[in-house]
Amino acid sequence: MKPEELILTLAAAMGVCFAIGLIFYDNLILSLIFSLAGIFYIPIRKKEQLRKRKELLQIQFKDALYFLSVSLSAGKSLESALMETHKSLVGIYPDQQSDMIRELEIMNTRIMMNEPVEKVFYDLAQRSMVEDIKSFADVIMISKRAGANLVEVIKNTSATIREKIEIKQEIETLIAGKKLEQKILTVMPFVMILFLKSSSADFLAPLMTTLYGRIVMTLALLMILAGQLIAQKIMRIEV
Q: Where are the domains of the chain?
């Protein structure tokens, strides 16, 4: 995270926690204390950003494999095919600073400095920590050592990886509606409490002013959080 992004994220997280504290406890001091829980959101946010960036790199890698297979089918060497792949991606991606384009620039520069292509792919796999890129790098390394038909092996592996990524994208599309429902269900308890506060404040008074009431509200808040975590775990389907 950049410093300004870190500050904005922390401020937003603490603000949300403060608002939740006001809704559930109706006490300014308790809400201020509860707002400190926003600090624990920072590592969660970083992990989520890393996951999204890896998923985006995986999709971009799928596109790169397509152009790589096309160039190999045209009879070009793997080194020349990588250069053509970079040119093709530059033509279709609006953001010239996207991860895959930058990686291909680095890879082509290293190949022109006579580094083995399998070493270049292996380095990308180690830095990106994306399983599909690691599998592809392993295939290239094994094929080079075994003296296999590298073009055919790469084409078949590329097709397999592309199918896997496409299946994952289809699954994400299918469960998109369920994710929206889950978000609505998470927000509904807060809406209900606000509605009851505005219409029947005396009805919620025991929960907001007594010790037992605040314990009940804390347990309810923990159950909402647990439901959110379980729902995210269920909907994160690995292919």
A: 51-163, 175-239
**Tokens encoding 99:** 């991860």
Q: Is 74 helix (H, G, I), strand (E, B) or coil?
A: coil
CA-to-CA distance for 35 and 13, rounded, in angstroms? Answer: 8
Q: What is the CATH number of domain 51-163?
A: 1.20.81
pLDDT tens, 129-180? 888 888 888 888 888 777 777 777 777 877 888 788 888 888 888 888 888 8
Single-letter amino acid code for the residue at 9: T
CA 232/CA 230 separation, integer angstroms:
5
C-alpha to C-alpha distance for 143 and 149, rounded to whole angstroms: 7
Match 């009879």 to its residue by tokens: 75
Claim: this prediction has a pTM higher than 0.85: no
Q: How far apart are CA 159 and CA 139, in angstroms?
A: 13
